[in-house]
Every structure is written in C-alpha cells, then in structure tokens.
Amino acid sequence: MPAQMAARISVTFITPHQRVTTGGVYAIHQFVRLAPDWIERRLVVAKGETTPIEGVEVLGPERLASLDLPPADLLVIPADFARAEELGALPIDRGMPVAFLQGFGTPGNPVVTANLGRVRHALAVSQWLVDAARRTGCPATLVRYGLDRDLFHPPADDGRHRRSANAVVAMMTHEIDWKGSDEGLAALRLARAALPELEIRLFGRGSAQIDGAQHLGAVTRTEVAELMRTADIFVCSSWEEGFGMPGLEAIECGAALATTDTLGSRDYALDGETALVTPRTTCRRWPTRSSAWRASRSCAAAWSPRGGATAPPSIWLGPRRPARSPTRWRRSRPAFPPVALRCAGRRRARPIRSPRPSPARPARSWSSDRRARAHPR
User: Fold this and answer.
1) Among candidates 103, 122, 121, which has minimal Cα distance to 178?
2) What is the pLDDT of residue 284?
3) Contact in structure between 10 and 352 (CB atoms under 8 Å)
4) Global pTM?
5) Mean pLDDT score of the chain
6) Helices 245-252 and 221-230 sit at what angle, rounded to 10 degrees?
7) Would the CA dihedral through 171, 175, 178, 180 be positive or negative?
8) How far is CA 247 from the centre of its chain?
9) 210/231 Cα distance (integer angstroms)
C-alpha cells in the first residue's frame, strides 16, 4: 500500500435490512465485507434484526432511528433511501454523504433524483447510471460489482452439468410490471409455437405460467448458478436495470443471453457479439430472429465462455487463473472507490472529534454547506 494511504479511513454504510439474498442489499454487504482492511467499516441496519460480519461494526435500527451515528469520513447511503435528506443534514463529522446508486428501483423514481441533489458524490455501478447522476448535477464515479467466479462459472467437464437433449431456456419472472415478465413470457410462447421441443424453466417471484414449463419458484444463488449452467439461453425482459447481474452471471455460466436493452446491460451485452439484444418492451421480436432459438447450441458456443468467447474485457472484474490450472475461475472483489480517498484525504491524518457548536452558530452539515455555495449571500 502506498505510504499516503497508510492511514485508515472510516466509512459508514447504510443498508435497508440484512436479509441478504440477491439484488442491491447483497451488493451492499459484499462491498462492506470485501473492502480493504485499511478502511474502517461500519454497517447501519435500517430495520430488522442484525447479523454479525467479521471485521465490521454492525449497528441496529435504533441508532438510525435516532440519527445517532458515530463519526466517520464517509457516509454511504442507498440512492433510493427515504431518509437520505435527514442523513445529509447530519453534522460534518458524521461523514460526507455519498449515494450508492444501483438503479432507480422504479424507472424514473423521483426519490432517487431528489437524493442525488442532496449528496456530494455518487458511486454508480454502471456507465448509464454515472451519466444519469451527472445529468442531475451530482458528480459520480463508476464502481464495478464483483463477480463470484467460485459460484458462477462454466459447466464442469466431468459431466456433472448434464445438458438436456432439447434446447433449454431459463427466465426469471416477477410481479412488478417493469420487470417485463409479461413480454418475456409472450416471447417464450411464440418461441414454443415455432419450436415445440423447447424446454422452458422459470424461476423467481412471478406467478404467471406457461403450459409445459418447469416452475422453480424462488431459488438460492447456488441454484441460480446451477440452472444457468444447464440452460442454453437465459432471457432477461426488463424495461430497465441498474446493471443486471443475472445477465452477466448467465454469460459466465455458459448460457447465451437474450435481453432487452435494459441500459445497465450495455456494459456487457453487445448485440451479436455477447448477447442477442432488442429494444426495451419489444422482446416479442426475439422469435422472429429464429437462428437464436433454433440454433441455441450455436448461440451458446458463439456468445459465451462455454465456446471460448467472452463479454467485453472491461466488465470482467477479477483475474482468471492460468489455463493450465484445473480451477479456471477466481472470485473477484469489488474495488472500493478511489473517491473515498480523494474525499477523505484532507481529513485522514487528523483525529475525528465531536463538534462543539456555539449557541449562536449551529453545527455545519454537508447539506447546509452545499446550499450556501449554491445561494451565496
């Protein structure tokens, strides 16, 4: 570690809960858990029970309810967090407020747009989110997700992941309309009409069904990885995703990816190179591109690591083992954003002290400083 980085910095992360499965909460926990040791990490849970994390101080909902947060250099807040305005108004020594932007939740969510105007910086997980934050006037840094290659990797050569004799298509379903399940299922029905032997495997929280399809319901991350390794094509029909990890995980597991242009998928889904991409909400056009369905084995060979090709090098987040190694894939760590060093560098060498506001002058906060700069007297 360079000498100028030798001093520890303190970062407080806010998480909605600790029911860690997939999605945004899982990503928050991975950033907290895998951050370098020279970062003093603290996790504040908004609701529910707390779970210990090795090397991390975990604080319960009562601390957030009373806004009694310990001193820190940075305060990382989910961009869609309802109490971001209150957190941004805390005294300066509670940490510079930074938004962790993983998406808008619901497309065009005004809460996210408002919160980006209340923080000093945003950490965005995809390029389109960087651009979206900057359009609001909020500086943003691109912070890539990590990818667990111990879990998401191509099929084993020993036959453990036996392929079906027919083409297999997997799709995740959801009750929320902008996840595009209705459009995706309509496309699968058209594909089934053109290719009757097509096997369809659905998983997730959606209740819609297709006759003859296998419905797996809610599954664990391990089960998702196993499903991806036995599928020829993974379908993503969302209208919008902050990044869309399932699509990347499918490619890594050897499945061909058929996806709508979710914006976040632009970082790894290149039409005709690493994926079959259609405009948003128009995934019913997929069956008209019959080669993608009738030659699914060829698709997998052309678009996925199973056939030797990969997604763009810029999205692979960790080193791979040499080809001679029997274990080809290695877990990669999310890189903690360099903005943490830039923002906290001026205060890194000084001890953190509690503020002593005078009766005539209230304690300064990051939000009050920002308003003062925006509206000088």
Assistant:
1) 103
2) 53
3) yes
4) 0.78
5) 78
6) 50
7) positive
8) 11
9) 17
Long-range CB contacts (< 8 A, 24+ apart) of 126-129? 126/242, 126/243, 126/263, 126/264, 126/266, 126/267, 127/266, 127/267, 128/263, 128/264, 128/266, 129/101, 129/102, 129/103, 129/242, 129/243, 129/264
How many residues in the chain?
377
Residue type, 223: E
- Cβ atoms 264, 287 nearer than 8 A: no
Q: Assess contact for 170 and 228: CB atoms under 8 A.
A: yes
| 197 contact partners, CB below 8 Å, separation of at least 6 | 166, 167
Other C-beta atoms closer than 10 Å to the C-beta of 276 total 21
CA distance 58 to 10: 14
Residues 89, 368 contacting (CB under 8 angstroms)? yes
DSSP state of 265: G
Side by side, the strands of the sheet bearing 276-278 are 214-215, 199-204, 168-173, 233-236, 256-260, 276-278
Amino acid of residue 157: D
CB-CB neighbours of 212 under 10 Å: 10
> Cβ of 315: how many Cβ atoms within 10 Å?
18
Distance CA 338, CA 51 (A): 28
Which segments of the chain does DSSP mark as H helices, in order? 23-34, 61-65, 84-88, 110-116, 127-135, 181-194, 221-230, 245-252, 291-294, 296-303, 339-344, 366-374
191 and 287 Cβ atoms separated by less than 8 Å: yes
Neighbouring CB atoms inside 10 A of 38's CB total 13
pLDDT digits (tens, 9 = 90+) for 48-83: 999 999 999 999 999 999 999 999 999 999 999 999
Of 295, 155, 274, 182, whose CA–CA distance to 202 is shortest? 182
Residue 8, classed as helix, strand or coil, is coil
Among residues 62, 31, 30, 27, which one has the least CA distance to residue 46? 62
